[in-house]
Design the sequence.
């Protein structure tokens, strides 16, 4: 596996030795357990025994090891119990096969069993079991595929209610195939060739399952041969995070089959490093991030594989000396998955290279999370069930595209039916939250009918993973890429990634150049300022200082996430490579291809293939998606196009390579900064789900204001909610009522009686951050650890952020809200050279009118807009630009204080 090349300019790539590959083996149908893992391309001929000789030596010729001292009391009853519990998790009991809740799943299992049985080679001279999984050609790939199909057949034989249940010929063919595998390809003296994951995880996991399901029909010699082979390749739990759990699962499984207490104990104890929060690198972090392979966000794929595997392990060993469980897993389900699951789909920005797999799109990952949560709900303590049950109901019922329970095992289906029928468990409703996954440079902002994701990278997180010939066009998927989820719940699930223009990913600012497949993979942004701050789990400011891979392009970009909109700002956009630079506002897959597009009220690009430039766009609207408002106006470029892609365009892995043409229609909206821009910028407001009329009104009277958009500070305010977001790029940056002495990300909300404040250090380089919030506080109501109040008027704090790992800290304080007299006082304090006498008189008259309306509690927003227009008209001649900015900022603060 060769590197794709070094970046041009600062920054570096993840060292190749730290990259790993992954192959997703067969989904163990009915469990939702994904066969995931690092798939380091091992050199042909590398011996598993050579890697872990001591562990292999501990395995005796009989496939067992001496029992550990603390397990000396283990009896055959414990192993019988574990086998029974393992079987029950897949097969279940006491159910009606005609039950509509489970009949479709049983029918699918029967069909799968017949398919694999009828196509399996059974001749004595066979070289493989299935012709599309040639063990004599694609050894490692075929190992996991073959065992996966055998486990499905074993489940078909073991499950009551279908015609293959108990079939003696099926049983004989199945056992003969397993015997053949360990005699010819999965031998106890074999060597790993190719992808180690197939030999150590995605092969032995289903092999263990198949052996367990037919255990009572295996001889001692067969059990010994099977478990010795598994022990040879997976002698102990290895690696980190998901891969450690999966290898532990393999070790526990073969220990249960062999009656090997030491192996079961080894596997259970191997979970210990995983059942804790990671402070860095692989694993779950306290903010809900999940990292695998050191640098890549993987709540989907690897993370789902981990949480889907643990409930099965817990259930399998329950009631024995090996019993293990940990409430931390419930926290992971809540913090790592609830924010990311939208109507059954798990957002692609947390699924790494798996977005390039046609059968593992966002709903597949979301359904696996549902399955994992169901397994945990059954045994959850009462306090946990109070929130887990309602959350699960929401996840299941909100999926209007696919059935999240389709293909699950009978026990899982029965668990789900019990939950859904339980009237004492309410459906929670849509999650409304705003969350920064600081440890993986991701942001999620959710409202009732839409959600917005931001995907970034830094020195800590790499741009994209592309190995095993997967995710070949992942170049820009984290370059400030934005993901809008709404009622079109299949938007990303319906061949988005193979058909979207990979050079125009929404949210990105990029130079226009062709890239080679996998080019730039593993690139680390040399800039540290990447992250965000959340206030009260409702509002977020996020930012990314990016030095783009393979380019001189640098940019500073911010996103301010409010109640009904997201304000996006860009500044300092500079490059000198002789190439054009663009900012992509939107690239939306169209559900019908005919969705209307309007620019400033006029229809635009009505037909497929149409392209247009709007030289003075104030707003653009895409029917069914929402509006885009340009506060300063923009020269906008629009295109409606028909595209045809193939999964093979973005993956060449044999498991997922598919050459089937996929026609899709797209609408693209972008801004052109020209060739070699110097300090270019942009501003736009996204209005998800807004109709054209709402978008037009917003353009006339926006609900937000851009407070600053410079290379030192970017800031925006939501007028009605009184929320201000400020991204300070350089020390002593100041915007509106906020100033700091170091780079920081700040969110402030001025309420009726309280002011809320939160700050983070996205650079993670400052131990303490000094922040002044220009309000007159009277007392502190609540403060996070590490927040020290220096003064109340104006509110000045010192916040210890060392060790916070990019997360937010803040406080709430009682204060005197901003009022019209405060703005009158500001005007009175401005010198004559800042405000001409005639302008002062006009502004005082307007403020007197506002004061009268405020005193009588009358609607005043129309007069506020008139005041802001007056300030803008006077700016630069009767009022200095600096004074006009100060006055306009004061007027903005009044929107949340006065009646609309």
Sequence:
């Amino acid at each position: 596996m060769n590197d794709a090349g070094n970046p041009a300019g600062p920054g570096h790539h993840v060292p190749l030795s730290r990259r790993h590959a992954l192959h997703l083996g067969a989904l163990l149908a009915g469990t939702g357990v994904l066969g995931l893992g690092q798939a380091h391309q091992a050199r042909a001929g590398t011996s598993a025994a050579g890697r872990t000789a001591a562990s292999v030596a501990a395995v005796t010729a009989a496939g067992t090891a001496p029992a550990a001292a603390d397990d000396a009391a283990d009896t055959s009853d414990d192993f019988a119990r574990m086998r029974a519990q393992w079987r029950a998790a897949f097969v279940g009991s006491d159910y009606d096969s005609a039950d509509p809740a489970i009949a479709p799943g049983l029918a699918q299992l029967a069909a799968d069993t017949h398919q694999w049985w009828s196509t399996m080679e059974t001749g004595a001279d066979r070289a493989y079991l299935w012709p599309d999984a040639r063990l004599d050609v694609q050894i490692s790939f075929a190992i996991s595929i073959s065992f996966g199909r055998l486990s499905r057949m074993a489940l078909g034989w073991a499950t009551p209610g279908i015609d293959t249940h108990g079939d003696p010929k099926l049983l004989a063919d199945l056992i003969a195939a397993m015997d053949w595998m360990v005699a010819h390809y999965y031998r106890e003296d074999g060597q790993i060739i190719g992808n180690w994951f197939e030999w150590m995880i995605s092969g032995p996991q289903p092999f263990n399952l198949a052996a367990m399901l037919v255990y009572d029909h295996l001889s001692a010699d067969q059990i010994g041969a099977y478990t010795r082979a598994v022990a040879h390749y997976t002698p102990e739990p290895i690696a980190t995070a998901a891969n450690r759990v999966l290898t532990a699962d393999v070790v526990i499984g073969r220990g249960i089959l062999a009656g090997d207490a030491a192996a079961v104990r080894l596997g259970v104890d191997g979970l210990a490093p995983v059942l804790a929060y990671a402070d860095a690198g692989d694993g779950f972090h306290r903010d809900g991030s999940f990292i695998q392979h050191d640098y890549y966000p993987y709540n989907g794929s690897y993370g789902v594989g981990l949480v889907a595997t643990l409930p099965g392990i817990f259930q399998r060993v329950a009631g024995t000396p090996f019993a293990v469980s940990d409430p931390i897993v419930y926290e992971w389900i809540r913090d790592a998955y609830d924010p990311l699951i939208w109507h059954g789909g798990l957002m692609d920005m947390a699924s790494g290279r798996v977005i390039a797999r046609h059968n593992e799109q966002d709903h597949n990952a979301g359904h696996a999370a549902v399955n994992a949560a169901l397994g945990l709900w059954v045994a959850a303590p009462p306090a946990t069930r109070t929130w887990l049950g309602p959350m699960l109901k929401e996840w299941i019922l909100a999926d209007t595209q696919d059935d999240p329970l389709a293909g699950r095992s009978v026990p899982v289906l029965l668990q789900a039916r019990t939950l859904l029928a339980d009237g004492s468990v309410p459906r929670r409703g849509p999650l409304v939250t705003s969350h920064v996954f600081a440890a993986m440079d991701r942001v999620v902002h959710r409202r009732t009918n839409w959600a917005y994701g931001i995907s970034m990278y830094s020195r800590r997180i790499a741009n994209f993973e592309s190995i095993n010939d997967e995710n070949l066009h992942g170049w820009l998927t984290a370059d400030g890429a934005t993901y809008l989820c709404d009622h079109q719940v299949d938007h990303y699930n319906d061949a988005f990634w193979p058909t979207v223009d990979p050079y125009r990913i929404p949210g990105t600012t990029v130079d226009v150049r062709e890239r080679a497949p996998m080019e730039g993979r593993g690139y680390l942004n040399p800039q540290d300022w990447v992250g965000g701050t959340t206030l009260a789990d409702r509002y977020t400011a996020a930012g990314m200082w990016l030095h783009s891979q393979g380019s001189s392009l640098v940019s500073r970009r911010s996103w301010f996430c409010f109640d009904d909109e997201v304000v996006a700002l860009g500044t300092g956009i500079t490059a000198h490579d002789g190439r054009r630079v663009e900012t992509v506002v939107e690239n939306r897959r169209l559900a019908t291809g005919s969705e209307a597009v309007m620019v400033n009220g006029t229809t635009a690009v009505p037909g497929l293939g149409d392209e247009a430039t709007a030289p003075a766009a104030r707003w653009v609207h895409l029917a069914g998606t929402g509006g885009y408002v340009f506060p300063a106006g923009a020269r906008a470029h629009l295109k409606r196009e028909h595209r045809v892609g193939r999964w093979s365009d973005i993956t060449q892995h044999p498991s997922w390579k598919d050459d089937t043409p996929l026609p899709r229609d797209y609408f693209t909206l972008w801004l052109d900064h020209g060739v070699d821009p110097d300090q270019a910028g942009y501003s736009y407001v996204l209005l998800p789900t807004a109709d054209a009329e709402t978008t037009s009104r917003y353009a006339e009277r926006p609900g937000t204001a851009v407070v600053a958009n410079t290379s030192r500070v970017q800031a925006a305010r939501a007028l009605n909610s009184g929320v201000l977001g400020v991204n300070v790029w350089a020390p002593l940056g100041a915007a509106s009522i906020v100033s700091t002495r170091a780079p920081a990300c700040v969110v402030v909300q001025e309420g009726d009686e309280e002011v809320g404040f939160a700050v983070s250090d996205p650079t993670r380089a400052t131990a303490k951050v000094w922040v002044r919030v220009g309000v007159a506080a009277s007392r502190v109501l609540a403060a996070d650890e590490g927040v020290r109040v220096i003064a109340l008027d104006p509110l000045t704090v010192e916040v210890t952020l060392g060790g916070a790992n990019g997360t937010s800290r803040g406080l709430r304080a009682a204060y005197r809200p901003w009022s019209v007299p405060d703005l009158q006082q500001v005007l009175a304090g401005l010198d004559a050279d800042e405000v001409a006498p005639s302008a002062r008189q006009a502004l005082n008259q307007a403020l007197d009118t506002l004061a009268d309306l405020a005193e009588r509690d009358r609607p005043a927003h129309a007069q506020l807009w008139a005041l802001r227009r007056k300030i803008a008209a006077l700016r630069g001649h009767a009022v200095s630009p600096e004074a006009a900015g100060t006055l306009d900022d004061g007027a903005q603060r009044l929107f949340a204080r006065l009646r609309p």
